[in-house]
Amino acid sequence: MARAFKLNLVGTSMLMSALAGTSLLAATAEAQTTPAGANPEVEGDIVVTARKRSERLQDTPVPVTVLNSSTLVARNQTRLQDYFAQVPGLSINPAGDGTSNIMLRGISTGNFGNPTVAVTIDDVPFGASTALGGGQLLQPDLDPAILSQIEVLRGPQGTLYGAASLGGLIKYVTINPSTNELSGRVEADISDTHKGGIGYGLRGSINVPVTPTLAIFASGFSRRSAGYVDNVMTGKDDVNSIDVYGGRLSLLWTPVSELSVKLSALYQHTKGDGSAYVFTDYYHRALNGDLTQSLMPDSGSYRARTLLLTANVDYDLGPATLSSVTGYGRNNYFSGSDYPAIAAGRLYNDFGLRKVTEELRLSSKPGAKLEWLIGAFYDDERTPTVQTINTINPTTAAFVSNLAVFDFPTTYKEYSFFGDATYHFTRQLSLQVGMRYSHNKQTYRETDTGPLGDASPGVPTYLAQDSSDNAVTLLVVPQYKISDDLMLYARFATGYRPGGPNASANVFNLPGTFGADKTKNYEAGIKGSAFDRQLTFDISGYHIDWNNIQVTVVDPATQFSYFSNGGQARSDGFEGSLEFRTRQGFRLTANASYNIAEFSRTPPPNLYAANGAWLPFAPRYSGSASADQDLAINDSWTASFGGTVTYIGKRYGIFASNATGVRVVLPQYTSLDLRAGIHDKHWTIGLFVQNVTDKRGVISSTARRASRATLSDIFYTNFIQPRTIGVSVARKF
Predict the structure, then answer these.
(1) What distance in Å separates the CA atoms of residue 617 and residue 545, rounded to the nearest whole number?
(2) Nearest CA to 234 among 333, 304, 301?
(3) Whole-prediction pTM
(4) CB 432 within 8 A of CB 422
(5) What are the tens digits of pLDDT across the range 351-399?
(6) To 10 degrees, the CA torsion angle through 689, 694, 697, 699?
(7) Rounded distance, CA 288 to CA 641, Å?
(8) Cβ contacts of residue 629 below 8 Å, gap of 6+?
């Protein structure tokens, strides 16, 4: 029995632990910098690198949302859960303990699995590619102060971006150094959260041209997100406060006009005092009072560290450009939480990742009849992971005894080759085709000790499992430009995520490995502008087939969680964004998403989901709308005021893991943010109010006994932040 308990822990414990803003069209006037390699002819517009070449957003036949980082900072939207609703089709499931799942277009089957959305920082892939390395749970959640913009590519991106891009991709683009002039910015903000504490933020950056060919950019920040959940067991208030600090140093060197070298180092440290779990019943009604929990001391506390070193080198060969993108990353996450299966039990998760990546590509110059790109990619990941179960003193959290240590390091190695070509039949009509071949190999090793881990008393357990698989992804994109301001496109694209080893499943004669799954995306879209670019819009409709789906299931005989493949799902929907600007300083931005994501063929056994069952965490309807007005006070100063309404529709939680289990329903909610401020060319002073009506919108909820939830269970529920009022002051020089 101890053996079965231990194995199930590895598969299920992480399940338990587990808007105002600028739309893709609203960032034009506020963009501060242009991504590396940008074409000077398009620098007046938003520039993106969705196709690994710089081009106007309105010319890109990919549904892309661009978020401006300075706007996010000014509105105190510093975490993904603060601004995700600005992106059509993007949904999240934050667990309240520093971990979070990201989904695009409803492509998800739960909150523990291999990632379905890829993440890059300056084109370097971030995080582990597998669930056993914490890939889906651990997201960068970078402070916007170190970023230029965030690009979100919706729909599969497997050909150019490889593994984990089943649903899409989030690209964090950092600020480039500039040799033009010395410049900088300092900013401070302070805020008060209703029924919570005080938050603050301090940020600074400086750009230094050292020589005409060398520049350095440095930025740093420190912030506190106020806590608002009280622990009635310990008597401690605001236990879910979060302290984050970090920065970035970047060097740009252009010794000759043909060569550009950018070296960067990014660091971020996050410390959470406790979880944001609120104890509720199945219907999300508080059990011990509004925004309260009842946990042992330090339960839900966590810390995370991210270090990323990157080197981006571009060399102009004349007819083509050779690019090298090198990354070295180290990520660490440590948390301790109550483990209710054992009296006074504490579960510790200790994830580590060392990731080395290299991408080498050769691309033709833009403007030719035939544009092409070829490349190769290599990824080497090592993820030492340790889970520990102790008993503790329930009053002081002091160590009492060790019950088990599960040490299971994994490795992941991948190489791939990719390429695409775009042929321009006429000035209006073009066709892009692409393909990628990928191969990966993974290893899993496990050593278990302690009363719950030993094969027999005092004898450790040793286990091993390896896997490998291949994938081919395709891309076909016809595009027709009716004019410079109106474009139609269709898109067929596939995405994949690798399979892998099952954690010790062979002990119970369960599958030792599981296979890759793949999505096929059929899409049509229109992008354009009208009224002298005062109105811009982006509308798309899509159908996604998801085959051989990876799911987490529970074996009814052993109660062991493992990964399996089976069934088919579909995701159908429409997404739209628009912006309307007047010359009198009025701006209206809106985005909306309609999505049906559900099983379309019988799911695999033991999943307890029927045909037509909604996929987890995906609302049918979601969207936001913002209105802002600028008013000139005098020749120097301008006042502004505005607001945003956000709507998130009903969602479902994870699937039941047994025939009598229940599935959580997350109700719809609407929130309102308001803002006002004044600015001149140097100073910006702003006032913001988030969640004006102090709504208790539910963003995640999981039964305390996730593997066997019933209506009478205690549920860990995570609400949106209560009403928060704050002020920010910034100075540019």
Answers:
(1) 18
(2) 301
(3) 0.91
(4) yes
(5) 999 999 999 999 999 989 999 999 999 999 999 999 999 999 999 999 9
(6) 50
(7) 39
(8) 585, 586, 587, 640, 641, 642
